[in-house]
Amino acid sequence: MFTWLNKQGVKSDRGFVVQVINRFTIEYREGANTMSVPIELGMTDGKACIIVDPHAFARWNADPASVTIPLEKQKEIWANFREALEFQRVAVIAEEAE
Fold first, then answer.
1. Average pLDDT over every residue of 49-67
2. What is the mean pLDDT of residues 46-74?
3. Alpha helices in the chain (DSSP H)
4. Assign residue 71 a region: left if phi > 0, alpha if psi is -120 to 50, beta otherwise?
5. How many Å separate Cα 68 from the centre of its chain?
6. What pairs with residue 11 in β-bridges?
7. 19 — pLDDT class (breaks 50, 70, 90)
8. CB 29 within 8 A of CB 80
9. Mean pLDDT along residues 20-37
């Protein structure tokens, strides 16, 4: 279940927060960890959406570049991220960055 924090952010009863920071970044927070996820604005089926590179969930902001999150945890974060945005009625498209 989600609780609205403000017009651009929600908190899950499972302990994570998804908050729009600006038009190019959405923040994912879980416990003491924060991840800034770059996004692009797009269209799908005539409606606005955001486009996210699924590889954007590889590391926490505070971790060194050489440290990556295990793949299973990355998949969990990606699923949480999508679920939170879908709750906010925001369509999400996964597309690898070129």
1. 93
2. 92
3. 71-87
4. alpha
5. 16
6. 3, 17
7. very high
8. no
9. 96
Q: Kindly report the pTM of this predicted structure.
A: 0.89
Average pLDDT score over residue span 62-80:
95
d(CA 23, CA 70): 28
Distant-in-sequence, close-in-space partners of 34: CB < 8 Å, separation ≥ 6:
27, 28, 60, 61, 62
Q: Cβ neighbours of residue 36 under 8 Å, at least 6 residues apart?
A: 21, 25, 26, 27, 61
Q: pLDDT over 70 for what percent of the chain?
A: 98
The radius of gyration of the chain from alpha carbons, rounded to an integer in Å, stands at 13
Whether the Cβ atoms of residue 90 and residue 64 lie closer than 8 Å to each other: no
User: 42 Cβ partners below 8 Å, 6+ apart?
Assistant: 48, 49, 50, 51, 93
* pLDDT, the chain, mean: 92
**Which DSSP category does 90 fall into?**
-
